Task: structure prediction
Amino acid sequence: MWKFLPALTLCGLWGCEPPPPPPPPPAARTKSPPPSELPAPPADPADPLFRHVPPNQRVAWQPAFKMAATREETDKKYPLPQNPETIRKVRAARVKFCRDESVGVFEKHGNTAAPWAGKARDAMEAYALSGARMSWPNQGVYYEAFQKALAAVPAACDDPLIRYWLLRHGPGYDSSEATAVAWQGLAENLAKSEYRMIALHAAFNTLSRVLDAAGKAGSKLVPAAVAEAEGRYQRALRVLAANPSPRYWDEVAEVAYLEAGVRSKQGQDGAAAIEAVDARLAAAGAAAWVRHAAKGKSLVVAGWAARGEGTADTVTPEGFRLLGVHMTAARGELDAAWQIDPTRADPARWMLHVARAEGFDRDEMEEWFRRAMEADPDCYMACRLKKSWLTKKWHGTDEDVFSFVDQCFRTGNFYGHLPFVAEFPLMEDLPYKDKEFVQKYSQNPAAWVPLDRVAHAHLAHYPDDRWARTRYAYHALIWKRWRVAEAQFHWLKDKPAPGWFETTADYEQAVQRANRELGGK
Result:
């Protein structure tokens, strides 16, 4: 059972209030301001939509479940790094990178005198804030702000980046063959521009969609279209892989790892696909870090694909063998990448997959977790992976998980979504497609409490987060919390965020049901 005590409040993004200084002599003593009047921490330029909440107004969180240790003991033995200076530095660097690759390129090479130039700049600036947010980048207040700014760009705008974004992030985005064909032209225009980083992603996304469309029964895509997409992608990859600047390392490694997955999905042997991608990186002169990181991530995916995510009794002997082979190789690659540059979080984060598969002991797993969070305190996926390692299914206990999700919530890092790890304490996520399980789980009132607290606390800091309000309403319907649902529907009106209600009719029916359950009030 969960219980929350009003006297216990969260530490915010900037940590708990520091201990008070020694009291002054009686004659000089002054009255301390109430918590509601304490000055807010300095604003974070990378997070301008964050709303400071005074300590005495923060959502209380004191679960009554049994934890493995006290909070003080947990924080001391297994720290969750949230250094404020590192947070600001890492976020600022990500925003600068996204800005340099969009509006920075536009200012140097774009049609800055065009009537639409101002609106295009606004969209690019909004992209910089949205793209810098690594956890769930296509949801939330910054992504919505980017979409609004993009929609405001006049139709006459012919900037290749804006035209690509209008398809990639617009309402017509789908996996149809017609869309795949449209991608070809937009990706080609980007390839001819100076938007080189985004051109690489566009070229890969186009190739992925063209291959997918071409593989469907009745496809009218000719081999020449596939060859065109292949050639464009390979050229874009070579351009950035050969660039001596470390600024593109993460981007090239990410796309190369994704390419290996696409090749495998298309029927190529997984190991062969990984080696082929690595050979192309080597031929392009890619940095050693890029090759180690891309190969390590690809091997992790191949290992889990061979094993499957089921319980041990569902895994074949060959599945176990391939898991071991791939994870041993991945461990070497990821360690090599981390040794080259420990300031990048990706190798340490991905090593947590290996830790779960190979059964690292607690201290070794924690060491890699610490490395990931010190490099990027917003690393939501590192927190999810550690939570998975701590479950009884793998290497921990319920008490270990409870201590950790409590720790995640107490960070107050809603920008990085770290508190969301606590929504479903003993699960990675709610298996929404398993209707029977969801119904049974939602009958437990205690299961609603952490979900409610996370949503309530997040919205206190980001009250205009349409995505968060939509998912809050969706969960409230499952738990039959009609007043919560109705309150969110009142705010959302007829514009829910996509992804939760399949159709407009589904959303309207949900609104009507909440109203009906409340007696039409």
In short: The radius of gyration is 25 Å. Residues 307 and 316 are 8 Å apart (CA to CA). The chain has a mean pLDDT of 90.
